[in-house]
Design goal:
The complex is a heterodimer. By secondary structure, chain A is an all-alpha fold. Chain A has helices at 7-35, 47-58, 81-85, 87-95, 114-128; strands at residues 66-67, 70-71. Chain B is built from 16 helices and no strands. The radius of gyration of chain B is 22 Å and the shape is globular. The chains are: A mainly alpha, B mainly alpha.
Chain lengths: 141, 457
């Protein structure tokens, strides 16, 4: 059997198979993009939420937290934090950091303005309304 | 050394090992912060330590891949490297950019770094693993392009083998998919969707081509098995890799806003992803069993076999553990992901780089293999690091299973931080295993300085 199956056959299957599955992946990606507007809550992507995303990125929040389950696993999931805690709690929490409690995990103080805090909350609200197929399983994230 | 220009691999390997050491030190800092939360706060907050840990990993593996390529391409092509000088220039550019970036992470707050490196021109920063400032990202593209140019020019003037073809395909894929790191739409779902085109299509796609090619090269050299046999295996393995891995990207699309049908596509194809890794293990053992010569470098053979086994366990088994959508619904974003990530990266990519270093470094230093004494020490470091990584993975798995239960499945779910406190014992044990890993790494580095009687070439 091994002698019948030559290296050039193996190579051709590699190129053919990879190409086929990559094209299939592109087709699924195209279809996903068609269906996204009904799921991705992009209608609520306001200027404030967009600025909130920028703040989320430029302060490397993903370095400790997860967002829709992706990121670091050091601090709580924030994809649904808007629903879990509400806007006022989120702002008060960010403002009061770090807690300084000995031995406890610490979050830095980022010195956000009131407007920036509102933008972050807006971004987290937008994120919490994305259709994630009911993930996370419960409100604790 | 058959070709003089292979010598350019040496600085790449040395830099890789140095950055690897940095990665482990920052890993230990983070591991301690998991249980002593305010350790080194505010000097090195957790997010900074994590950026340094993961970015150093990526950079040292890239150094390893480049060193491996510069070592094996002249031998495969049976000709000197197109431009050894360009290879040395890109080495220093890449090292300087890498070190400057890490120092930037440590020296100033991330927002300041973003402000002064042109993030407002094109916002690419602050996404996991792609935290590098814009100039660094552009620098990576330039370095990789000049590197691929050098390799292609070498191949064009010499023999074209399946190993070098697969390697170059992997490297070109690495460059092409990295371009998606420049695409950061405001729409979070699209942002995440295409972010995986870098991360997943690298580690579960094109990087596996690089892995397969390097391993195939070393196996030919140390076993003397016929090239036709090895290259046929290589093609079959990477065929399975891409057939399962490309659509397998879907296992990242379950809960980020993409359509629900990804739960089917992702589950089916990623359930098959262990197959190429299993074949890699069979391949390595088969070739060593069928060896036609006794190569004096037994340490390199140990690393090659270890790569097969550990990549199958880490990427294959630990990946499968939480890849099916109904399971992943509960385990997504828990310590189980961390467990899988650690063993997969060590088993597949760290170990294959250590394999080629183990094989090539003695030759670059003018001998076929190191002395018996040095090899014994190197093998000790293999077992120390590998067993330590097994335990790191097991402790994180225990933490992840408990976390999933307490926070996600229980009828009275606990909060994230309360759950973390409940599983702290496993973080302590993980840190202990991490210290053993560091000891293994120190033993590894010391093996380079052990003399003793060496076998001539």
């Amino acid at each position: 059997m091994a002698t019948r199956f030559t290296k050039s056959m193996a190579r051709n299957i590699f190129f053919g198979g990879s190409l086929f599955f990559f094209l299939l992946f592109l087709a699924l990606t195209f279809d996903t993009n068609q269906k996204l507007p009904k799921r991705d809550n992009s209608q609520n992507l306001t200027a404030s939420a967009i600025h909130g995303k920028k703040l989320w990125e430029t302060n490397n929040c993903i370095g400790c937290h997860t967002l829709l389950g992706e990121g670091a696993y050091f601090a709580p999931e924030l994809g649904n934090v808007y629903k879990r805690r509400g806007p006022d709690f989120i702002k008060a929490w960010i403002k009061s950091q770090p807690t300084g409690a000995p031995g406890r995990r610490q979050m830095p103080q980022f010195n956000f303005t009131e407007q920036e805090l509102d933008d972050l909350v807006e971004f987290l609200k937008y994120t919490s309304e994305i259709n994630t197929n009911n993930w996370p399983p419960n409100i604790e994230g | 050394m058959q070709y003089q220009s292979q010598a350019v691999a040496k600085p790449y390997f040395i830099a890789a090992i140095a950055l690897f050491t940095g990665q482990i030190l920052f890993g230990l800092i983070m591991g301690l912060q998991y249980v002593v939360g305010d350790f080194l706060f505010p000097e090195i907050p957790f997010n900074v330590a994590r950026m340094v840990h993961t970015n150093l990993l990526i950079v040292w593996l890239l150094f390893g891949f480049m060193g491996a390529t510069y070592y094996l391409i002249p031998e495969e092509s049976e000709t000197e490297l197109f431009s050894p000088r360009l290879a040395i220039i890109t080495f220093w550019v890449f090292l300087a950019a890498g070190v400057a970036t890490i120092l930037g992470y440590l020296a100033v707050p991330y927002a300041t770094l973003a402000k002064f490196t042109g993030n407002d021109l094109l916002m690419t920063m602050g996404r996991e693993f792609l935290e590098q400032p814009l100039p660094t990202k552009v620098g990576i593209v330039i370095v990789v392009l000049s590197f691929i140019f050098n390799v292609l020019m070498t191949m064009l003037k010499g023999r074209k083998t399946a190993i070098s073809l697969v390697l170059v395909l992997g490297l070109v894929g690495l460059a092409v998919f990295f371009l998606f790191s420049f695409y950061n739409p405001h729409n979070l779902v699209k942002d995440k969707y295409y972010w995986w085109w870098v991360v997943h299509l690298w580690v579960e796609g094109v990087w596996e081509l690089i892995l397969g090619a390097i391993l195939a090269f070393v196996l030919i050299k140390v076993t003397g098995v016929d090239r036709e046999v090895v290259e046929k295996w290589l093609y079959v393995i990477i065929t399975m890799t891409l057939i399962t891995g490309i659509i397998g990207t879907g296992h990242h699309y379950y809960w980020i806003g993409a359509p629900a049908y990804w739960q089917v596509w992702g589950s089916v194809f990623s359930a098959l992803e262990p197959i190429p890794f299993f074949m890699l293990t069979i391949f390595a053992f088969n070739m060593v069993n069928k060896r036609r010569r006794e190569h004096p470098n037994q340490a390199a053979i140990l690393w090659a076999l270890g790569t097969g086994v550990m990549s199958f366990l880490g990427a294959g088994v630990w990946g499968f553990l939480h890849t099916l959508a109904p399971v992943n619904y509960y385990t997504h974003g828990t310590q189980l992901t961390a467990a899988h990530g650690h063993m997969a990266f060590y088993g597949a990519y760290a170990m294959v780089v250590l394999t080629i270093i183990s094989y090539a470094m003695p030759i670059l230093r003018g001998r076929a293999a190191n002395s018996n004494k040095a090899q014994v020490v190197e093998m000790w470091s293999f077992w120390l690091m590998t067993v330590a990584m097994v335990f790191i993975t097991l402790f994180l798995t225990a933490a992840g299973v408990l976390q999933t239960w307490l926070q996600r499945i229980s009828t009275t779910p606990m909060s994230f931080m309360a759950t973390q406190d409940s599983v702290a014992i496993f973080y302590w044990m993980r840190e202990g295993a991490g210290v053993v890993f560091l000891i293994g790494l120190i033993v590894y580095i010391s093996s380079f300085f052990i003399k003793g009687e060496t076998k001539a070439k």
